[in-house]
Amino acid sequence: MRRRTPWLLLLLLPLIAGVQRELDARLGRYRATEEALFVWSGTAVRRMAPGLENVMADLYWLRTVQYFGGQRVFDREKRFDLLEPLIEITTTLDPRFELAYRYGAIFLAEPWPQGAGQAQAALRLLEKGAREMPQSWRIRWDAGYFRHLFMDDPAGGARILLEAAELPGAPYWLRTLAAAMKSKAPGERDFARLLWQQIHDEAEAAPIRRNARLHLDYLDAADRRDALQALVDRFHETRGRWPGSLAEIVRERALLADAAGVAWDYDATTGRVRIARLSPLWRLDRWKAL
Q: With b meaning 16 or more CB within 10 Å and e meaning fewer, what string describes 205-234?
């Protein structure tokens, strides 16, 4: 990420002020009640201030932050109409303004009224940042996390995190996070198991190996629980009642406990099989159910 030059900004203030007055005159005064808004593109601003692109990007980023803060704190309607155009102008003036991509995406993605509630626009912004800064693992980290959090796409988020993990300087825990996302995606436990096994086998630190082992045990327990639930449901279909206990349908005693050796939590009135609260795997199961 490029370094800012405050001293240069001070020297160029008179020129910047003149350019900005002309821009404001052409843009007109923004009214929050207007349905149609006219905002210049970053390319147009670039043509008006050749050679001052980075300085103008700083100025427009300042305007973006002020606009977002004003809408969030003071405006009752909180429409955020100009937020995406202002960020677009900023990042067009300075395509390598990493901070604008990352914080701009947060401003856009946060649910209304704390933010604009525009997750798709946030992802478009991060995708633009990834194109302009292909070596930035941080932008891809944000994109993967946003896709998981705001778009309910853990598989897509994990894929982006794995791409980020291949970039120079990327931290090891990106693979850990990708594996966690994958294990939350329905029908993709086998892939998650491969990732956690890789993390377990390659980790040099004991805490990382223990954490990977815990997730592997959870994946085994989830498969076992699903198989038991299928047996319980089949018993109910054929007998017209739920089993009085899991021992009524399971012969192997090892199957009566999860991968951590803790007995299942079974409700004979509903036929529901769960990981018991006493199991070390319970917190993982609770997180994946959120």
A: eeebeebbbbbbbbbbbbebbeebbeebee
